[in-house]
Design brief:
The protein is mainly beta. The strands form 2 sheets. Strands 1-2-8-7 form a 4-stranded mixed beta sheet. Strands 3-4-6-5 form a 4-stranded mixed beta sheet. It is globular, with a radius of gyration of 15 Å. Strand 1 and strand 2 form a beta hairpin.
Length: 122
């Protein structure tokens, strides 16, 4: 799973096996150690969650995804989900949860578990 944060936008990208794990177990996380503390980013499936939302507790960003959407996501062509959350002082937090596609340019990164890029088939 990859995470990208820019300003008020948080974006997760998941490989095929990560999407399948999320659908089967209802949870997926990655950890990055920083000395004595660890930054965690996770996705949790929740039946009561209508729209994608997030929280940040104990050094962990957790996105919450509706259970029905998570289960079907592993078996459909939907790229992902997005949501905007109104925050204090009139700001907005934008959330994106997407399938990770094979890059169109040359990269040294292992992409064997990524989804085929639909733009490469044209």
């Amino acid at each position: 799973m990859k995470i990208r944060i820019k300003g008020n936008t948080v974006r997760y990208r998941l490989t095929k096996s990560e999407v399948e794990t999320l659908a089967q177990t209802g949870y997926y996380k990655e950890e990055t150690p920083f000395g004595k503390r660890t930054f965690v980013y996770a996705i949790k499936v929740d039946a009561a969650t209508p729209e994608l939302h997030a929280d940040f507790v104990n050094d962990t960003i957790t996105l919450y995804l509706n259970e029905r959407k998570a289960v079907s996501w592993a078996n459909n062509d939907l790229v992902g989900f997005s949501s905007e959350i109104k925050m204090a002082k009139g700001t907005t937090l934008s959330l994106l949860l997407e399938k990770d596609f094979v890059c169109m340019d040359n990269t040294d990164e292992d992409q064997s578990d990524n989804y085929p890029n639909p733009k490469l088939s044209k």
